Amino acid sequence: MIGALLALNSLSKGWNQGGAFGVPQDFPIYPSATLSGVKETVSTSGTRVTATWEADAPLDTVTAYYAERLDRGSWQITGTNAVDGTWEFRRTDGKIHGYIQLSGHGQQTRVDILLLK
Q: How many helices (H) and strands (E) does the chain have?
């Protein structure tokens, strides 16, 4: 039982970082955000990863974090949708593209991503 709890704790920590469950190691995850769901689907047309994190921070703070982190290094913001607030981004090597949507709820922000590989 103790071993299972330790493994679960280790798995939970991995979920809050890039590199777990189809999320690339270098994908920016807001500090201290908690993963609330992830799903990886593999098909003949490619791999699709959806993930959701909850951050204990207001929307403007989390938005500033992603505006900076998703537009440097291996990642580039390629478009924004003013209607629903979704941002499109891609990995600079061209192997992954995706979408991120941030939604605020008081001092909490939900981070939803869709990665297409």
A: 2, 6
Structural domains of the chain, count: 1
Task: Find the CATH number of the domain harbouring 55.
Answer: 3.30.530
User: Model pTM?
Assistant: 0.82
- Structural domain of 106: 2-116
Q: Residue 30 and residue 27: Cα distance in Å, rounded? A: 10
DSSP reduced 3-state for 28: coil
What is the dihedral sign for C-alpha 77, 81, 85, 88? negative
Residues lower than pLDDT 70 in the chain: 1-20
Q: pLDDT at position 42, please?
A: 92
